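Teaching soon. Got one?

===
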Amino acid sequence: MRFLDIEVQNFRNLSSVRLELGEGINYLWGENGAGKTALLEAVCVLARGRSFRSAQAADLVTTGQEAFTVRASFLDEHRGTQTVAVMRSRIGRSRLKLNGESGKKLSDVARILPVQVLLPSLSDLVFGSPAERRRWLDWGLFHVKPDYLRTLREYLQLLKQRNAALKSFGRGDLNQSGVDVWTRKLVIVAEQLDTQRRDYLVEAAAETLAVLRLLSPELEIATRYHRGWSESESLEKVLSDSQARDVKLGATSAGPHRCDIELSAGAAANSRASAVLSRGQGKLLASAMVLGQARLLMRVSKRNSVFLIDDLGAEMDQQHGAALFRILREMSSQILATSTHPLGESRTPMPTPETMFHVEQGKITLRPQR
């Protein structure tokens, strides 16, 4: 997949901009606050339905306006040229169109717009909470396993129901059999979810390590999957043993919603990566995880990802930054990269961009190649 053009209206400080994009690297440079990150954010909202900076629609709409609109045309590997548009009001009302047709689900659009976001905070994938790594896992599975989203949604709904049952039991409004009903249903779907995640991670981890060997061969990394409960016991037994505590908490303490991916580093790969890696090394590992995931999607689904890279070169030296772009080039990925420096002054060496744009006070201007 690659974008052909993008149009943004009333999104943060971008009142009205339209860009025709090149196949490879699209380089946007300008001062901080000029609107570079806002453009990437708008693309992310279009593709994923949410911003990577704010969950509130009111924060995204230009001051004095009632709604923002983001439109794009893109080339899909399987369907040819497509169009997509999203409009969202300040109070959160939303309209989504795919090829001019309303009533489409966000998941319908997200599935055919695989967009990966490389932010300065990318190392949170290594140093952050397990929720960061679960989101990485869920994004990959959503794109390569058509039934995964249904399974995940079913599990989360059952989890909500069981938590409500635990609270009712704690108040004396429900008997034990009422909790057991939801526990049994939860366990069945949890095991399905666990199997899908475990199988996917085997392939995703292999691709990650392959990318890491190209990006930073000095790093020795191992991955280990933690499913969210003991490997030696069934989930049904774990939930039975922990019920007294769960009733006090009003929440289920074990299950796929507690899963994590343990990242280890070192010669024997036996030390927690978050404890021994620098921020720069953590970003290299996180970058390999994202690129590896995109390579797996390309291999399994024959679909290329678009990469949004904000603050090019942050926490990454020239050698590793150049390696990153070589890998992206080999993947034939379309890239939207921002920097505060004009081309040639960037801290990260990169191939010549297909298009260059200067961003200034919410205006984006195409700059000719020299």
